[in-house]
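Methods: example folding runs. The two proteins below were folded one after another, and each record is reproduced exactly as written to the output file, sequence line first and structure-token line second.
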Amino acid sequence: MKGFVPTPPSIVDHMVAKLFEKKIPEPEDTILDPGCGRGAFIDGIIRWCEKNNTKIPRITGIDSDPKHIALACEKYSKFPSIQIRREDFLLQVHEKFKFIIGNPPYVSITGLTEMEKNVYRTLFHSATGRFDLYFLFFEQALNSLEKEGTLVFITPEKYLSVKSASQLRIILSRYCINEIDLVHEQSFGNLVTYPAVTTITHKKPDAPTAIIFRDGCTKSVRLPKDGTSAFPVIYGKTEKKSGHCNLGDLCLRVSCGVATGADAVYIHNKSEIPSALRKYAFPTITGRDLSINSSKVQSELEMIVPYEASGKLIPENQLGALKTFLSAPENRIRLLKRTCVAKKPWYAFHENPPLAQIQQRKILCKDITETPFFRIDYSGEIVPSHSVYYIIPKNPDHLEKIHEYLNSHEVRVWLESNCQRAANGFFRLQSTILKQIPVPFSILENEWLSCQKVTSLHVPEQPGEVAG
């Protein structure tokens, strides 16, 4: 099965205990592990039954990997109440189960074929945007859960916040989410996923959700029902104040930098770029080049860009020396391996860079950072790489005022309460979150400006903008 990651026994036992916390299973009760692999959760259920002097209920393990199926069938051949089936859980109609437990596969949309994406989008409401396979496992498992039944899944916590999981959050809001246990980030060893153990009962929500934080603290919250991020209510420490508008309302663009899909081909030290390619080269910067200890925005790197200022791809027959460079065997092989070439010319970027907008004075920040901070590109010449976000105010006179405010303690606290976590406690900044930063009118020259008037000036996202 794609995305298979073995679950450590300590986590398995922790989850099985949650599964049976409110109801001890009867021998005739049915339990499903929808991605059973080699049987880690089935082993955990057997351990729990032995420890609690309880007969093993009827367990069904499903997996699509023949190697896992063969091992599991042999392991449980002496257990008459355990059935192992080779199936694709997402493509089958299943009977109902009293209990469901598992660690669904984590596979981003980039790991799926076009045919798989199309099939899943047809079958699942949660298959929207840049969905992950475990979103669909959540939806399918809930469809297979009996009324009053219990589901316990361990998944990355990002389903609580990312835009692509908004439909999944709407689906989950129809059920009683008893608890979200944010287990230790090193639960899977070196594979840092920021896992969450989610316990759900198939009934209408009738109580707040208990949140267990990684430091042992707990909190009860009412999760949003409209699909918006749950992070503000989970991590939130500040409430939205009057007299504020959102950063997105004040800006022409709040976007991720340019994603070439092949930085090894397009980004080089400027001293290494041949003179024949100079007209295609622009100063660039990566997240590593931005430092919280320095206000300087500089790098020795340049990005070779096969686009016109308008963002239009330069025709292949007009590339000249650049075509020769890109056609070199080692470069062409790298370019053809990218997923974007299925729908775009072989030398195109993942997104068309709007150079005319990018090349002006702007605010920059890292996409992943231990402490959020912002810097100004006063030159206006830098074309940031995909590990940097750039912010362009509608009014250039507001650049320094907004920059100063974004580096304030108030914004830092807000970001820490709203951003998704990355590895080692770092924060993942995204355009959807950055756009929501509340900005007080008082920092602007025209303090009388109202939210409605600012919003009326808002420019929709341009083609090629990357949603965080």
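Second run, written to the same file directly after the first:
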Amino acid sequence: MSTLEELFRFAAHLFWPRACPFCGALGESACVLCLLPCLEPPMPMDLGSLPLWSGGEHDGVLRELVLALKYGGDRSLGVAMGRALGRIFPRPDADLLVPVPLHRGSERAYNQSLALAAGAAREWGIPAKEGLVWSERREEQTSLGQEERKMMPRDVFSPVTKSVAGKRIVLVDDVATTGTTLERAAETVRRGGGVPVLGLSWTCAPRTKEGMRGVR
């Protein structure tokens, strides 16, 4: 790391105190290089209508990082996590990374899935942009059981006007629990004239793996 980068990191720590939980580096919510060993081996899967690349099972340190991202108020952590995903997986043949949107009325200050998408975008050289919205106000998925999640209406999302038309889309979510959210998002992209080519998530719930094909 250059002297200028070290100075910037130190200055960032003075104004926004934080340190990498793995190596203690000042000014970093998490170092990308420190995150990489947590994602071995990565998990390519098949949701049925959409391939899914996930960093690992929703357990242990990966789960703790998701909770810190969702509730800790630090968007930069999500960017670092997204960059780590972008390094362990090859660049997909895609035009745009689109995050699963925040629920309507959410009290979170930022969309954690957009932060992940922004990080992966930096590594892959593919732009990230919010392209979907919830069609109606719904309970957050974390409050629903597995069967309730699977019953999600097919029109639960709507595309932002012409945002996905004619584009190959990677859909990004923080956690794939049943895969239903990503599948509904993929259906919405198709209705909007786009082509969903991949789902990307930080983690996948262990109980969900059994219902997916092609797990390695």
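Comment on the second run: The chain has a mean pLDDT of 85.
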